[in-house]
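step=encode ok
step=design start
structure_in=
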């Protein structure tokens, strides 16, 4: 055979295997990005993606060899390309369905991730894996040398894999988005099938169907969006998403939470990174931002300007807060993903002419650059505060948590400066935060940890504070910047417990197994995300009066994750249905669960509602016992935040129930003064006075309340109070007083 004929004989097989191998690698990278939307990006995610795709290729290679021996190569390739195109549509559909399958929530986390990836990507990988053996057989059938032919086919397959990897990672994902890539690959696979067997009419039929499905799945028209969503060719319509983008690093979305006020959230992959009040940057929404602000205020009372560094940009909410509260400050933000900054500018209120200095690079590289400039004698900034905000819950750049990085941070921090980092961990495990604290202690002599005293959905946000000198955080609990959050400043023994849980691990550049340490967080994050969706559905059903359906969903959620608040909601619906004994039992379960978990949970409202319920069920002794426990809890809440109107009212009501009338009157009067337009405050105060047989005072108060309501146009409330006034006058007449 001549060299020219030999070249032409191997060209088509080489091109075919190059293309199919490229498609496999493109789909593999796309798989990681698609899965991240549901399960986050973690070691488990990428391990499952790589393992499943390799398993598919392995199975496909075996089956491809069998197919090559039984069928003509060209026709076999045509059919395989056509079916592969069908499975690309399957990827789109299953990606929108699998995440909603409730039964998968019961799997342990590695199995959950593996199953999710397998359902979506095993069959496409298998089909594309069958192509190489069939192509090799086709080339050998043309009389080409065996060894050389196999070598060429393998080399072109490897080259295709390399090309697909770089093309997807460096260009396609950012330029097209993952779903568009899947549709494009499906279209080209269908075209390849037609080219290999032009007379196979089924492929033309499929091509027509494919184009129709692609239009429904991709066209920016209303009918296509609604139809595509109903056929699972698109994600469910979400009209509150006002901005979306896919970059080399993240899937980014900005979601409108409300329009009045204008409240938005910034989402990266599956994680809500920040929330903003567009008209008031000082109104910080996230607890860790409020803690950052409170600490910064406490330690900067004598400073008019600050020098701060934010590691991680997100929506740039906190850097803008610093810019607003301390005008003229130096504010540097290091964000590796320029797409994040663009999203913040387009949809999250960041001005393009902002005075914030934005550096788009890895934070480790930025800090290294500063220290190199410092080494050669150039002046570099020394920061008063460095805020770490580059961790996405379950995705942590390991190079930003090591002792070596902490040592570098200390060198660009002023002597009285503070390094604050927010991170997420599951308190019961504490592997990551314990390791992080222990690592920070190798560099900084003073470490503090602040979190929220509340029941978590599983994972909790911690703010770790590192300083070169001792700082006083006593006033943090009452600082207005923290909006009177239920803060918990961990004691030395609490911190020691976390370090012990982590086995005294010190994270270094040579040893930083953050993915393993965060395995529990990854699992909890995905479950929390799905639980939130299910809770929203249950809440919607409840609002529409479909209590049985709502309770059924809530009970399924309780099997997955017991949460006091869910028990409470179920009990409330049971009360509305008249199922009082079941409601009492459910509230008791909430209390028992809340008392046995280690996370601090406020059970005051549960005790209060159970007490009211038991009173109605003619169980006075048990009722008073729960009223007393509610009183203890309400007092603790008001000690931390005396401005809680509802808590003040409930404390007064509970004190009334245990016949502590003098105190009850005081708190109910306070609640009425705080919220004078709430009729129940006026009514409860009058009822308490009536129980004390203070008829004249009750009549006087009711008369004043009626006039007040009428002056403010509250005729219905005035009528209710008038009816009670007549009842009080009747009771006074009966008593003869």
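sequence_out=
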């Amino acid at each position: 055979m001549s060299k020219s004929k030999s070249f032409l004989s191997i060209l088509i097989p080489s091109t075919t295997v190059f293309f199919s191998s490229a498609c496999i690698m493109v789909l593999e990278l796309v798989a990681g990005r698609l899965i991240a939307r549901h399960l986050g990006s973690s070691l488990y995610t990428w391990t499952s993606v790589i393992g499943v795709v390799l398993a598919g290729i392995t199975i496909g290679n075996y089956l491809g060899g069998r197919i090559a021996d039984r069928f003509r190569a060209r026709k076999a390739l045509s059919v395989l390309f056509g079916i592969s195109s069908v499975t690309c549509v399957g990827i789109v559909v299953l990606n929108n369905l699998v995440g909603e399958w409730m039964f998968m929530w019961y799997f342990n986390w590695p199995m959950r991730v593996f199953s999710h990836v397998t359902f979506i990507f095993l069959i496409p990988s298998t089909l594309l894996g069958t192509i190489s053996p069939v192509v090799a057989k086709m080339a050998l059938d043309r009389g080409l040398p065996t060894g050389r032919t196999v070598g060429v086919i393998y080399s072109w397959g490897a080259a295709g894999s390399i090309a697909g990897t770089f093309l997807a990672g460096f260009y396609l994902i950012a330029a097209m988005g993952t779903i568009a890539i899947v549709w494009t690959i499906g279209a080209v696979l269908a075209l390849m099938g037609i080219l290999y067997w032009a007379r196979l009419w089924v492929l033309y039929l499929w091509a027509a169907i494919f184009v129709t499905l692609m239009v429904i799945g991709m066209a920016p028209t209303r009918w296509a969006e609604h139809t595509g969503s109903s056929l699972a060719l698109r994600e469910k319509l979400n009209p509150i998403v006002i901005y979306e983008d896919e970059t080399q690093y993240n899937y980014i979305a900005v979601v409108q939470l409300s329009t009045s006020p204008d409240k938005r959230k910034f989402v990266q992959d599956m994680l809500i990174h920040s929330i903003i009040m567009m008209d008031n940057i000082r109104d910080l929404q996230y607890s860790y931002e409020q803690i950052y602000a409170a600490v910064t205020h406490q330690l900067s009372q004598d400073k008019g300007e600050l020098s701060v560094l934010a590691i991680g940009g997100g929506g740039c909410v906190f850097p803008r807060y610093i810019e607003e509260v301390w005008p003229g400050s130096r504010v540097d933000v290091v964000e590796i993903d320029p797409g994040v900054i663009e999203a913040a500018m387009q949809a999250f209120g960041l001005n393009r002419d902002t005075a914030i200095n934005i550096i788009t690079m890895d934070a480790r590289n930025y800090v290294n650059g500063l220290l190199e400039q410092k080494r050669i004698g150039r002046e570099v900034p020394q920061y008063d505060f460095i805020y770490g905000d580059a961790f996405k819950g379950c995705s942590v750049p390991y190079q930003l948590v090591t002792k070596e990085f902490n040592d570098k941070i200390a060198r660009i921090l002023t002597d009285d400066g503070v390094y604050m980092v927010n991170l997420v961990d599951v308190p019961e495990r504490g592997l990551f935060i314990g390791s992080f604290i222990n690592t920070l202690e190798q560099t900084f002599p003073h470490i503090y940890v602040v979190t929220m005293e509340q029941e978590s959905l599983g994972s909790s946000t911690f703010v770790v504070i590192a300083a070169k000198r001792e700082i006083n955080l006593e006033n943090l609990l009452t600082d207005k910047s923290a909006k009177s959050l239920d803060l918990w400043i961990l004691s030395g023994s609490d911190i020691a417990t976390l370090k012990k849980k982590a086995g005294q691990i010190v994270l270094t550049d040579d040893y930083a197994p953050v993915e393993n340490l965060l395995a529990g967080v990854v699992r909890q994050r995905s479950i929390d995300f799905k639980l939130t969706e299910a809770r929203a559905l249950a809440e919607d059903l409840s609002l529409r009066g479909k209590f049985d359906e709502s309770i059924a969903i809530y009970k399924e959620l309780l099997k997955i994750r017991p949460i006091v608040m869910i028990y409470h909601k179920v009990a409330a619906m049971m009360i509305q249905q008249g199922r009082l004994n079941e409601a009492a039992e459910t509230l008791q379960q909430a209390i028992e669960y809340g008392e046995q978990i280690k996370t601090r949970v406020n059970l005051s409202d549960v005790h209060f509602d159970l007490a009211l319920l038991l009173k109605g069920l003619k169980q006075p002794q048990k009722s008073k016992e729960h009223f007393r426990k509610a009183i203890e809890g309400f007092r603790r809440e008001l000690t931390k935040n005396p401005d809680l109107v509802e808590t003040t009212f409930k404390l007064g009501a509970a004190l009334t129930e245990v016949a502590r009338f003098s105190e009850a009157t005081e708190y109910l009067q306070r609640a009425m003064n705080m919220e004078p337009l709430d009729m129940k405050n006026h009514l409860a105060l009058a009822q308490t006075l009536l129980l004390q047989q203070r008829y004249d005072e009750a009549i006087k108060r009711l008369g004043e309340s009626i006039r007040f309501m009428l002056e403010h146009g509250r005729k219905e409330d005035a009528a209710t109070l008038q009816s009670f006034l007549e009842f009080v006058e009747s009771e006074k007449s009966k008593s003869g007083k």
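step=design ok
step=annotate ok -> The first strand starts at residue 241 and ends at 246.
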